[in-house]
Design brief:
Radius of gyration: 27 Å
Number of strands: 5
Strand order of the largest sheet: 3-4-5
Order of helices and strands: HEEHHHHHHHHEEEHHHHHHH
Helix content: 40-55%
Mean pLDDT: 88
């Protein structure tokens, strides 16, 4: 069997050679090294173009790992990047569909089996392999790499990643207010199902809030669910970013990377004041959220993620930090006080169709209504007095 066929069937592993490293420059901030530690210059030129286009450093890092995966395949097949064809792209797609994702390896003994559904939350755990969105992202990275080099007259004549001309024509001049048309996917692209936002019901929210064992974590959860800020945005604020009288905080948003105001509930600010009274107020320029154990240092995303994991283990749930943002948007959209454009402004959604998804009915609400429906007794048929039973039976049947 050919190596490409073995890759597509998951019988051949791609050697984990080379690495992505952070470099001491801005354009690009990350570089891809081969097995000998030499920088892969075609990838560096591509990442530099991304950085010069005002892409965030995390985008350059993500694209760097996508290119490293692609070059690992080319090194295994002995194919130069400028001679790559759709055959190599198909081999990578098949391998991503069949191989196990190393990021899904469970090291905790109490971790759920990959792909199982949590009965309390209704959320499924991540599958053992690569998600369809991950595969499509890998194809997008490779396609952009070859489009960049084709613009400069390098690489193959034809982009090895197939594209859908129908989709490009349909989406090229579409207004964001119009619904997305249904068009055919390009070859090798994966079908991605639309996942409804998963917010936390009030009953389970109360359990999660009670499971927090310190003022810092309770303040974080209260501000998360009242502001709708993303985890990295909220964890990066300092004392100088809090407007106590205006009941708002200032965060560096993900999309524009500008300092923007975000409203916060009075209860969230009250919890924050309790936390600062307990640990002391740091300097205005220093991070607000601090680690509780070990040397004094800022609270990282991974440390807060571990806080959620401990609460999930205690409650038998699988909530994530991003579910708190979904909960905030769902409460705002369905509370009856804010219009949909106002919720869109608070959540910093570029498309109102994204905000509109939070108006969907919760499956938990359907269960409650169905339970009431099942408990309702069947209606009993009554007839006016004075009619003979035999006449009623003859007219209406037995």
């Amino acid at each position: 069997m050919d190596v490409r066929d073995e890759l597509m069937e998951g019988r051949q592993a791609i050697p984990r050679v080379g690495r992505v490293v952070e470099v001491n420059r801005a354009h690009p901030p990350y570089a891809v090294l081969d097995a000998t530690g030499v920088e892969v210059e075609p990838v560096t030129a591509f990442l530099r173009d991304l950085a010069l286009g005002d892409s965030s450093p995390l985008t350059c890092r993500s694209y760097g790992y996508g290119m490293l995966r692609w070059f690992r395949l080319l090194w295994l097949l002995g194919t130069g990047w400028e001679r790559a064809t759709e055959s190599e792209v198909a081999a990578l797609t098949g391998w991503l569909r069949s191989a196990a994702n190393p990021q899904r390896q469970r090291h905790r003994g109490d971790a759920p089996v990959a792909g199982t559904v949590n009965l309390r939350t209704g959320k499924a755990s991540l599958c053992a392999g690569y998600a369809p969105r991950t595969i499509n992202h890998a194809l997008t990275v490779i396609s952009g790499f070859y489009e960049f080099h084709a613009h400069h007259g390098h690489g193959p004549v034809v982009n090895p990643v197939p594209h859908s001309a129908q989709r490009r024509r349909a989406l090229g001049h579409r207004s964001p207010l119009e619904p997305t048309p249904v068009v055919a996917r390009a070859r090798l692209r994966q079908r991605v199902s639309g996942r409804p936002p998963r917010s936390i019901p009030d009953r389970l929210w109360d359990e999660l809030f009670t499971a927090m064992n310190c003022d810092r974590d309770r303040a974080l959860l209260e501000i998360f669910v009242s502001s709708g800020a993303r985890a990295q945005e909220l964890l990066g604020i300092a004392v100088g970013d809090i407007d106590w009288s205006g009941q708002r905080i200032y965060v560096i948003t993900k999309g524009t990377r500008a300092r923007e105001a975000v409203p916060v509930s009075p209860q969230g600010l009250f919890r924050l004041a309790l936390y600062l009274d307990a640990v002391g107020t740091p300097a205005d320029s220093g991070p607000l959220w601090r680690a509780r154990r070990g040397p004094d240092r800022p609270l990282t995303y991974w440390a807060m993620r571990r806080v959620m994991q401990r609460a999930n283990t205690l409650l038998g749930t699988n909530w994530s930090l991003h579910d708190l943002r979904h909960t905030a948007a769902y409460r705002m959209a369905n509370g009856g006080k804010l219009s949909l454009p106002e919720v869109q402004t608070i959540m910093w959604h570029t498309n109102i169709q994204t905000t509109n998804r939070y108006l969907a009915v919760h499956i938990e609400e359907l269960f409650d209504k169905l339970t009431e429906h099942y408990a309702t007794p069947r209606p009993v048929r009554h007839y006016p007095a004075g009619y003979a039973a035999a006449d009623i039976e003859a007219v209406f049947g037995a």
